[in-house]
Amino acid sequence: MAGNCSRPVKAVIFDLDGTLLDTESLVRSVSATVLERHGAKLTPDAEKAALGRRPLEAWQAVIEVLDVKGSTAQQLFDESEPLLQARWPDAHLLPGAERLLHHLHAKGVPVALATSSSRASLQRKLFTENKRHILEQFQAVTCGDEVAEGKPAPDAFRNIASQLQLDPADCLAFEDAPSGVDSATAAGMRVVVVPSLTNRLAYPKPEIDAKSGCCEVLSSLLDFQPSQYGLPGFEDLICGVTPMHPPWRLVGTVVKGFGRGSKELGIPTANLDNSALQAVLAETVTGIYCGWASIGSSSETYKMVMSIGWNPFYKNTEKTAEPWLLHDFPEDFYGEQLRLAVCGYIRPEANFTSLEALIARIHEDARISRSALQDPLLVQAQRLCMTAG
Ligand code: ADP
Ligand code: RBF
Ligand code: MG
Predict the structure, then answer these.
(1) 254-270, pLDDT tens digit by residue?
(2) What span, in angstroms and rounded, lies between the C-alpha atoms of 179 and 184?
(3) Contact (Cβ atoms closer than 8 angstroms) between residue 283 and residue 27
(4) How many angstroms is it from 138 CA to the middle of ligand 1?
(5) CA-nearest residue, atom 11 of ligand 1
(6) Is 17 noted as a catalytic residue in this protein?
(7) Which of 58, 179, 207, 245 is most deeply buried (CB count within 10 A of its CB)?
(8) By 3-state DSSP, what share of the chain in percent is helix, strand and coil, each rounded to 5?
């Protein structure tokens, strides 16, 4: 069996931004705005260098990568900070974050937080009605302004291990940033990576049996299997489907897809326009999901099974959401408003050696969806897509 059970994990340590909280799009837009005022443009390289670091050190990295002249990191920090502080309360938890934290806490597994944020920013990020309870679940917290050296130095993760009185080799870290992965690795921990950058080459190659460093790269926290690390497994699965709380409501227009003749294969997928996706989902979140759909002015709902991502089999360059409505329609409905309530996670996107294998797997996904969506818990989500607008 693949897995890393030989040394069971005794505690789980999370990074905050980009790992538990969807802050990356906020940070990206604020950084781009500030840089523009200084005649510079945010690039993927600059983002990679900054991600996961303490704010001042992140700006220093950006200045170096972009060769920004005439402004100090302190000046850029002073400009960006009020804009960010105003937006932190809007950052929402990433898919699967709440479920994983709640599960580990309920099973008595110590969980902790190792963030590069300052203590004051942490308060702003989590001190809203729907996020307040998250802080209570952590047995230990270390902030960027409480350690000598920030990530990628090991201080943050080391500090947590000593607070918990554990050997770092008994701790599992969750990180989204290359600098954070380096930090946890340098502290001697195993790391599960949930990337905030779309470029997989920005991260170390995963080795599931590694004694320290990157063990696996997941498309979201919904895909984590605790038993691979000797941790108690989830007990909430419905016919193999992970129920999602809260479900996502995706509303958009049905657009032309890639024209690959999916309909001829018996798998028509009503591609959603991209802005609908970007508004709700972090860039790097992908996977195969199930839920409910309704179309136009009708409140009738249909079961659906959907792929979100870059379709590794076809190596798409554009991210898409492609729901297959499990119903026979007499006509196409391009241009109509499509409302989706996505309430179950099935699996990560995969690659296949043949088109037949892909099609067989999609039919299996549909079968799983049909049965899981009969469960009262998942039936509840239907109401989310019934009303137009
Ligand atoms: P495209 O490449 O344009 O997405 P497809 O072959 O995937 O083409 O066909 C998708 C279109 O088929 C949808 O946009 C929709 O108008 C229509 N359609 C008919 N039945 C269904 C269904 N059960 N689920 C999804 N789309 C359907
Ligand atoms: N494409 C992939 O490359 N990998 C997948 O794992 C995958 N899973 C899918 C699951 C479902 C339920 C659906 C509807 C599509 C999936 N696709 C996947 C997308 C598929 O390649 C695309 O819809 C094609 O256009 C079908 O011919
Ligand atoms: Mg399609």
Answers:
(1) 999 988 878 888 999 99
(2) 9
(3) no
(4) 46
(5) 270
(6) yes
(7) 58
(8) 35, 20, 45
